[in-house]
Amino acid sequence: MANKKVDVAIVGAGWVGGIIAAELCKQGLEVVAIERGHDRSTAQFQDDHDELRYAIRNELFQNTANETQTFRHNLAETALPIRQLGAWLPGTGVGGAGVHWNGQTWRFHPRDFQIRTETIDRYGASAIPANMAIQDWGITYDELEPYYDKFEYMAGIAGKAGNLKGQQIAGGNVFEGPRSREFPVKPPADTPLMALFRKATTSLGYHAFTGPTANLPTGYKNPDGIERGQCTYCGFCERFGCEVGAKADPTVTVLPVAFKTGKFKIINYANAFQVKNDGKTAQSILYYDSMGRVQEQPADIIVLGSFMFNNTRLLLNSKLGTPYDPATATGVVGRNFCYQAGGGGASAWFANEEFKRYMGAGALSCAIDDFNADNFDHTGLGFLGGGSITVGASGARPIQSLSVPPGTPAFGSAWKAAVQHYYKRVVSVGFQGESPAYQMHYMDLDPNYRDKFGNPLLRLTFDWQPNERAMIAFAGTKTLGIMQEMVPNGQVAKGGPLSPTSADLISGGPGSLPAHFDTTAYQSTHITGGTIMGADPNTSVVNNYLQMWDAENLFVVGAGNFPQNAGFNPTGTVGALAYRAAEGILKYHKNGGALV
Amino acid sequence: MTDEEQTVPPADPPGSSRMTRLGLLHRGAVAGVTGVAAGSLLGVGEAKAAPEAAPPPLQFLTAWEFDYVTAMAETIWPTDDLGPGAREAGVGYYIDGQLAGSWGKGNRFYLNGPFYTPADTGHGWQVPMTPADIYRAFLPGYDNYVRHTYGAGYPNLTAALQTTAMTDLQTGKASIPIGGATAYASSDFYALFRENVLEGMLADPSYGGNKNMVGWKFIGFPGDPMRHGDLYFEYIFSDKAYPFAGKPLPLQPAYAKQGVTAGAAATGSKTPANAASNKLMGGM
Amino acid sequence: MTDELDAYDGQWVAMRDGHVVAHAEDEESIRAHADVQPADLVFPIGVPPSGFYLINV
């Protein structure tokens, strides 16, 4: 027997589920969220400054024993399961990955939303490699701006505008799209390292600004009346829950608002596995309860708000939408699987200068955007895209933060001496690179491996392509230039090893990516695509209200909507899309029909 | 239908990290920590450790394996003029606890078949074994290799030969046949073991290593900042030295006594959890 | 499909249309290589010494 039918049923109680639930419940709709994990709140994180338990043994993340993805580098390979978490850390439980994120909250560039159009306008169609499948989003930056604004005011994002209504403002990110108003919270001050980066990049003619952050530098009361206190800079942010609620997460922002209406309910320990449908209409969410029994939650409107892997897997398991076929580049579900490219950073090891690296906040950073997106001329460079460049103070938990100069032995007394000397004396400038879409990068159901309930795992096909390799090589020369300006007397490694001396040492230069994508090394949890949005039902799963073309009462929302990834952290854009979807759902609830 | 809202979360499976920690504490494996927890808030990092307790019973490793692991850990992080090494830090006990616990048993590892030797790089763990299985299978094979190559078991080699034998793992030169020729290489074991040693030196002392916080003191990591009153915000934006950098404090296990109640966040409490520190900031 | 690159770990390669046209020990040598044309993409292969991500420094 099915559960009581509700207005809206959502898979997942993370940022997407929380935002949509809050917005709909405020309007009187009855909403149920189907959540596979347990309830969470700040109370559970009072003793979580435990690097081993949370950051190494992965307490807050998806349990890969139950469910993982399989991975192959190309269509000819047999995919192998990712048997333990590595490259990315999907969340689980109430709040989702929104509980363990760092809080770096960006808006994508106007160009990112019209990447294909603008690339062809500027460089011609021949600049796009034959198998690169970048496409426009079906929504412009200006159309999405009000929703970005809504997310930022709800979450209390701290920063300084670089573009207010078209007016560029020094000290903010002058490359960003126009904002309708200033950030809700003033940016944090500079740490000594951020100040060093700001000075160096400014003297190189770049445009430094404080990275927009969801870690409150001051107390903040949001439009929903939710008050939160300021960050303590404890340095336990990404991979941890925030014990003081200073990091915006769904459990301290939108979920309490939804609960307060009395219209919202979360069903915990409920693993959604299928959307029951007749090919045109979604009828209910089928899930396994905590006893493994199949249960059914009917609703007038269904929202898939789980992590992008699961949104794609749910559609494929439900036989909703046409699965993507990489051979013909037809079909939609699973297409445009994208990631991000790192490897273009630079590091320096000081002989004397110390930094309090153990202090920090996840999104406490200084950044430049001069080499991101199409903010610089790509003529003659041979590649498209770029990335953001940052120096961060996110907290150096010791197990993962021991860094010694290249050439130092990997163990023994010499290594130990370097570990001691450099723990507080290493700094790095990072590069977060774009990941364009390719015809052969996609997700489908694996033929060999299954999850703990017996359903097929999602299979990923992805590898580094020459465009990104060239982009990363280029980026490394830029971060090295910045590092040399920051550390004027630094000795730079030229191919050979650096050995610890009394001098400041620098490692950098043309960046590189491994011969094949490495599923074991953490890079970022910024994985996108599979349920992409667009203007054309032949090349996208959802329209620009995140309403599924093939089933009008089904909304699929999250980073899976990105047709390709940008050179920024994705959460700001996920939040904006969730607000956009909430508006669409209300419209649909009132009038029905296709919204676009 | 069954509404699962009221369902009690399933208990931690035996051997989960929580159980392991509690188990260790109950067994007194971490004399330094219990001593600290009983002390006053400030300056206890300098307090005298309790008298040396008898070593805790091993939970997974055999005595022979324990000696092997301890000797190998000492090669990674040796005792020298700069400070104590892995043996004194209790890294062997840390690894024993981890292998006996949920991680060692393969919790959070996807171990369904079929298993294949990867055709190219980047696929990670592809053997039908848990970390505990790997340690148990690998050490005798390695011992065999070390005896044949260097004439004695690892614990009995000179420090110089131990370094060479460790390098044989690092480079993959030592061929230890488990999991097929390439599915699990000796360099994989080296990477796993080295990571475990780092954890044993730098994880919270309640896990059995980092005894008396020797690892944290060595690099200048202050431990849990909350134990010194959560003062980082007064220091992070300036060059002012943090006075407790060399005086680390571990986690206080029963921490949730800060006036934050379980439902505060879920009900949108008006009182920020860190109201106290906000007041401190008010004057700045 | 691009060429298999595992064999070039730690080296520089020049690529054209997804195929390796030359490889060398360092940037200078690859750029000076007779088979490399100006429009070829030239880059190193391997795990970067500074890691992928900020947390690893």
Question: What topology emerges from the helices and strands here?
Answer:
The complex is a heterotrimer of chains A (596), B (284) and C (57).
Chain A: E1 6-11, H1 15-26, E2 31-34, H2 51-56, E3 69-72, E4 80-81, H3 110-113, H4 115-123, H5 141-155, E5 163-164, E6 167-168, H6 192-203, E7 209-210, E8 220-221, E9 227-228, H7 254-260, E10 264-267, E11 271-277, E12 282-288, E13 294-304, H8 308-317, E14 335-338, E15 346-349, E16 360-368, E17 387-394, H9 413-422, E18 426-433, E19 442-450, E20 456-461, H10 466-486, E21 491-492, E22 505-507, E23 528-530, E24 547-548, E25 551-556, H11 571-591
Chain B: H1 17-27, H2 31-38, H3 63-76, H4 86-89, H5 91-100, H6 131-150, H7 159-170, H8 186-202, H9 214-219, H10 275-282
Helix pairs in contact in B: 3-5, 5-8, 7-8
Chain C: E1 12-16, E2 19-24, H1 27-32, E3 41-44
Antiparallel strand pairs in C: 1-2, 1-3
List keywords for this structure.
heterotrimer; A: 596 residues; alpha+beta; 8-stranded mixed beta sheet; 7-stranded mixed beta sheet; 11 helices; 21% helix; 20% strand; globular; C: 57 residues; 3-stranded antiparallel beta sheet; 26% strand
Short description:
The complex is a heterotrimer of chains A (596), B (284) and C (57). With 284 residues, chain B is an all-alpha fold.
Description:
The complex is a heterotrimer of chains A (596), B (284) and C (57). Chain A is globular. In chain A, α1 runs parallel beside α7 and α1 packs parallel to α11 (571-591). Chain A contains eleven helices and 25 strands. In chain A, β1, α1 (15-26) and β2 form a beta-alpha-beta unit. Chain A is 21% helix and 20% strand. Chain A is α+β, with helices and mostly antiparallel strands. In chain A, strands 1, 2, 10, 11, 12, 13, 24 and 25 form an eight-stranded mixed sheet that branches. Chain A has a seven-stranded mixed sheet with strand order 7-16-17-18-15-22-21. The model of chain A has no long low-confidence stretch (mean pLDDT 96). By secondary structure, chain B is mainly α. Chain B has helices at residues 17-27, 31-38, 63-76, 86-89, 91-100, 131-150, 159-170, 186-202, 214-219, 275-282. In chain B, α3 (63-76) packs across α5, α5 crosses α8 and α7 (159-170) packs across α8 (186-202). Chain B is globular, with a radius of gyration of 22 Å. In chain C, 11% of the residues lie in helices and 26% in strands. Chain C has one helix at residues 27-32; strands at 12-16, 19-24, 41-44. A three-stranded antiparallel sheet of chain C has the order 2-1-3. Chain C is globular and about 25 Å long.
